[in-house]
Automatic annotation (TrEMBL):
GO terms for biological process: galactose catabolic process via UDP-galactose, Leloir pathway; glucose metabolic process. The lineage of its organism: Eukaryota, Metazoa, Ecdysozoa, Nematoda, Chromadorea. This is Galactose mutarotase. It catalyses: alpha-D-galactose = beta-D-galactose. Mutarotase that catalyzes the interconversion of beta-D-galactose and alpha-D-galactose during galactose metabolism. Beta-D-galactose is metabolized in the liver into glucose 1-phosphate, the primary metabolic fuel, by the action of four enzymes that constitute the Leloir pathway: GALM, GALK1 (galactokinase), GALT (galactose-1-phosphate uridylyltransferase) and GALE (UDP-galactose-4'-epimerase). Involved in the maintenance of the equilibrium between the beta- and alpha-anomers of galactose, therefore ensuring a sufficient supply of the alpha-anomer for GALK1. Gene3D superfamilies: 2.70.98.10. Pfam families: Aldose_epim. GO terms for molecular function: aldose 1-epimerase activity; carbohydrate binding. Pathway: Carbohydrate metabolism; galactose metabolism.
């Protein structure tokens, strides 16, 4: 495990935390956007390969609008026409995807998070990032503390825990995610070679605007 500086943003130092395990697997995380910068795993020949896309310097993340590896929210995905209704009141958000609001508008991904609880045990290494979003920020109601923990163990598992804690009496909406782009083999250019298996109980169709419909389909 190591901690180093990765540049400065908004007069705050950005930290680079590297988690390692006994098998040579390595996860690099930066406090800007609580971002997974790289994930090095050994292939069947024992060669370490970076299987997520990222940038070599902080400016790449600052200037990027694709949310590479970032923690996104308050609400991930699109909110149609950049508004929502809660408790009879309509809230208006900044439109950053045409007429729509995407991935919180950068509320969480374009800031420096505090670095907490860098831990090392006999079988795992972990780090926790924390930030607070205030009432009205990016149009969302209520004060909320957000925490994201990354834990790499010796079973080659990178576990991610996303948490949100209300700091006020105001109701709000939250739907967090981490947004890495995976490329499991840099030598293969087409995604058509891969099979993606996901376990779920229902899904929502999307509109032409890529916003979700209100109807759920159970399977």
């Amino acid at each position: 495990m190591s901690v180093s500086d990765f540049g400065e943003y908004d007069a705050k130092q950005v930290k680079l935390i590297t988690l390692k395990n006994l098998n040579g697997m390595r996860a690099e995380l930066i406090s800007y956007g609580a971002t997974l910068k790289s994930l090095i795993v050994n292939d069947k020949r024992g060669i370490g390969r970076d299987v997520v896309l990222g940038f070599n310097d902080l400016n790449g993340y600052i200037n990027d609008d694709s949310f590479f590896g970032s923690t996104v929210g308050r609400v991930c995905n699109r909110i149609g026409y950049a508004s929502f209704e809660l408790d009879g009141k309509k809230y208006f958000l900044p439109a950053n995807n045409g007429k729509h609001h995407l991935h919180g508008g950068g509320c969480l991904s374009k800031r420096v998070w505090e670095t907490h609880e860098i831990r090392k045990s006999a079988t795992a290494q972990s780090v926790k990032f924390m930030t607070v979003s205030r009432d009205g920020e990016f149009g969302y109601p209520g004060d909320v503390r957000f925490e994201v923990s990354f834990r790499l163990n010796d079973r080659n598992q990178l576990n991610v825990l996303l948490e949100a804690f209300s700091l006020s009496d105001a109701n709000t909406i939250v739907n967090l995610t981490v947004h890495p782009y995976f490329n499991l083999d840099p030598d293969v250019c087409s995604i058509s070679y891969w099979i993606y298996w996901i376990i779920f109980g229902f899904f929502k169709a999307i509109e032409k605007t890529y916003t979700c419909t209100k109807m759920s389909t159970y399977i």
